[in-house]
Every structure is written in structure tokens, then in C-alpha cells.
Amino acid sequence: MRYPKGYIPKNAGVYVRISEILPGTVDETAGVDRQTKDCLKVADLKRWGTSSHIYCDNDVSAYKKDVVRDEWEKLLTDLKSGVIDGIIAYDLDRVARQNRDLENLIDIVEETGIPNAVVTGEIDLSTDNGKMVARILVSIANKSSADTARRVSRQKLERAEAGEPPISKNRTYGYVYDFSATVPEEKKLLQEARKRMIAGESAYALCKEFNAAGRLPYSGKPWKSQNLIKMVTNPTHAGLRAFKGEVVGVGKWEKIFTVEEHAEILTAVENNEPYSRNTARKHLLTSILVCDLCGKGLGGKAPSYYCNVSRGGCGKIVRNMKAVDEFMISLTYKAIKMLPAVKDVPLDDDNAKEIERLERKIDEARNAWKAEMITLADFVDVRQDAENKIKALRKTSAKQAKLPVDDAQAFFNASVDQQRATIKRLFPVVGVKPTGAKGTRFHPDQLVFPD
């Protein structure tokens, strides 16, 4: 439908937007409410009909290219379909700070002739002059946003380097809003999750347990693996101040983890099981048993563990799942009873000191490269060598830590995930040999335990 020149809208839509609600704002809708009131006043002066079609993008940027403005997109759709027959906004920069957004609106105006107006000035996108002025104003607004973003970014970096806590409209899990104290129950959950993930438990299993126990995030929504991983690996909890993903300072707030504990969980997430997916295994030993003939991990489907041909295995190994599980549980139970108690320390003093020395060595090499005292190739060599040594030290320390379940009786009653993590710590890989005769039942001699 094309509207005739001079058409007076009977059902105009109002568009209002605020780019950012500042932290600590008491009335978060005050800004858009004022814009709405002013838009409706102009509509009355023009004798435009309006209804309940108020399109509000509150706390939404029009400058950032990766931000989708849901209400803006809905307004464009409603303009095209005839749900509304006009548009009024407080100012052109509320509508667009990117040329592509303005051009999308201009295309609809050119196609339909739909009336449009802004509170702060007379810009008619149906005329050549109006379009020219609008394009100039949006280009100026875009440049202004870019300049502001650059200044704000620099200010945020300075705060981060000074160790000031991050400012956000959302509270950081584990801390009160201003970082003056920790939240005890949240701190306890983070520390527990970190220890159990270091020990080999999956984030999925922990989320399932926490949700069932009602230990939810402060939002009240159930835990998800990605969210839990993000929480336990957040450098903020180790008293480190990050900016755009890079640690740039030491924070002035209470630590929930030590720096060494933070490094441990990063290593676990990066190098161990893919915590970001649902990695909960249904069967006890599928991540431990391997075929002694071809070296492929055994798959599991009740009632058997088997070498899976579809995953590149030889298909020559099949074992009764219940029999193997019972033997490995019994063996691990006996092993736990025989082992001496281990103090739960993430890193011994010697390892911690050596890691600190290696990290200083990396920093010194970086500074030498910046000062053009060494070449980039030399700096990369030093860094890679030091990082490899740090990784080895952290693996050694992880082996010295407590078992996921270090009480023999508790091991019997533990979840499959906890039992598997404990078995895997003691017996990381267990080979399964062929029986040698068709129909031979499982016997412990068919298992191979590497030295």
C-alpha cells in the first residue's frame, strides 16, 4: 500500500530508545518514558492518531553493529505490513546511528510514502532534502559515538589497570554489587565447583546436582554448563582485573580463589574433557577402557562394553558391562583404603614459586622485546618454553591433589560421575584383551594396567 501525499496517520507507531542504563539508576524507564510523553505531544499537535504501538528499546545501543534492536526490527516489519501507518521518534539519533539502519527506513518510506516525524526537528524522509539532511546527521552521530566509545574504553582500561572493580548493571556472582564483600553461599558453591571440576567431574553433572538441590544463580534460572564454566574461570574471582579478555591489573577486592587455583581450573577446562557440552556419560568406564588390540576407546551400550567399528575400532572386543564395572569399583575401593590421606593443596610451595619465576621470565622477555633488546622470534621461544614448563608443573600438582572421593565407603555411594573421576585418577587407562576363546567369561586377567 502507498499512502497519498499529505496523509494523516490514524495509527502511528512511536519509537523510543536509550543506549545505556547507568549502574545504580533507580528508575530504569524514566528516560524512555520522557521520550514517549514528548512523542505523543507532537502526535497530538499534528493530529496524528496513535494507539498502543509504542516500540521501546531500553538500554540498547544503535551504534554497535552486533546488537539487534528487537523493537526496531518489529517496527520495520509493522510498517511494511501496514500494522502502523506512521512513525514518530524523539530524535533521528534514537532511530539510527548506523547508515544501514537509516537506509532500511528510507527504503520503506520511498516504497510506501508513510509519514514520519521527529520531536526535535522537521526531517521528512520522503523528500530528497530530508534524506540528505538525515544522512548527514546520522554520519555525524556515528562519528560522535565512535569518539565516545574510544574515550570510554580508555577510561575503563585505566580503571582496570588501577585494580578498580568492574562496573556493570549486573552483579558479579560471588560478590555483593560494589565488591565490598563476598556472598558466602555463592563463594562456597564456586569453590566446590572448582575443586570437583579439577578432580574430573563434568560441569553438566554439577549443574544437574546444583539445580536439583535448589542451589541456583541469583537470577533464579537453572545452571547451564557454559554459565558455570564462565563463573569458575572468571579471573575476577582470583582478584585479577581483566579488560577485553586480558588481565591488566590486580584487583582491590577479596579473592575467592588464589591465582594458582585460577590457573588450575583454566588448565582443566582447556586440556581435559570438553566441559562446555553435556559430557555426562551413562556408563562408568567408557572414558577409561581401551581396546588392547587397536587402542581405540571402548564404547558402551548395556549390557556390554565393545570396540566400536563405526568409530574406527577393530570390533574384536566385547565385555560384560556389569562384571567389569563391579571389578573396577571393588579394585578402586581397596585402593582408596590403602592410600594415605592427601592434604588438599592445589600447588606445593616449590611448584608455586617455580611457576611465579617462569611467569616473571615471560614478562621480562616481553619487556625486552618491546624495548627492541631481543627479536620477536626470541621472545616467542622463551614464552613457549616457559609455558610448557608451567603446564607440566600444574599437571604434577594436580596428580598430588586429593581424589574426587577419598573415603572408601563414600565411594560406593557416590554418583557415577564421581566414581568415574576417582577411578580415572587411579587408573587413567585400562586395556582390555581378547578372551582367547569364544564365550569365555570376564576375568580380571583380561585387563591391562599400564605401569
UniProtKB/TrEMBL annotation:
Residues 348-403 form a coiled coil. Transmembrane segments: none annotated. Pfam families: Recombinase, Resolvase. SMART domains: Resolvase. One of its GO terms (molecular function) is DNA binding. InterPro entries: DNA_bind_recomb_sf (IPR038109), DNA_bind_recombinase_dom (IPR011109), Resolv_N (IPR006119), Resolvase-like_N_sf (IPR036162), SSR_resolvase (IPR050639). Residues 172-275 form the Recombinase domain. Residues 11-163 form the Resolvase/invertase-type recombinase catalytic domain. It comes from the Bacteria. Keywords: Coiled coil. This is DNA invertase Pin-like site-specific DNA recombinase. It comes from Saccharothrix ecbatanensis.
